[in-house]
What does this fold into?
Amino acid sequence: MQVAPHYDVLRYIAALIPFLVAALLIRVVRVRLNRLAERNIISEQLVARAVSLVSLLSLVIASLVTLYMLTGVHEALYAALLAALVAAIPAAPILANAYSYYIILSERVLAPGEQVIIGDSVRATVYSISLFTTTLKTMTGETLVIPNRKLLEEVVRKEPMDRSVVELEVRVHGVRGSTVDETRERLEDIAARLRRVLSEFKGGIKGLEVQATLKSVEGDTATYIVTFYMLTTGVRMLTSLVSRLMAALSEYNPDVRIRRLG
It folds into this structure.
């Protein structure tokens, strides 16, 4: 029995579906990781390595599935399932840590600068929270790096801490572009720069309560209100923060004024 030519064409078109799915997966992973890199949660080098690994595995699995669809060789399908399983085993703890990171932030379990007690003996300060690990500084100066999933599994108690509210008024000039979209892009870029600078001081700022709000746009000038909690109202740290803000926005001739301290 001769197979109709149009059936072969449909089969070849269907064989492209695994590659389309793989391309979509690679794109989603790249976009998600780039967003994390923009927020200084992970490094750009890690993004490049992760995207390369996901691309390789996705294309290998897509190739094996396509081979099965075109030839009917079951060994190709078994190989694809085996490749997916091999990729899933080491990825499981990585995904568990990433999910724990989401829980820690969304549920406000911990934040940089908070004092914590783990178990019955370890007393430390949360220094930073990354996508996979949390870094703690003990009272003796020791640095502890704990996987996020392990941190959630341990008994963690938070201690009350002293903190001061800081409110800055950041005024920038030359924000209006030739079009509305260009102006909007500049305003979003300025807000992103403000958040990026604040993230550099996450050891002394309670990161979950940082706000950078656009207050007004008048003519060519925009005013942002930046509010955050400092663990201690240190003049040196605050001066350094203001200097970094001015350097990051230098092209907009910024004016930074402290509206509230303490």
The two ends are 86 Å apart (CA to CA). The first strand starts at residue 115 and ends at 118. DSSP finds seven helices and nine strands in the chain.
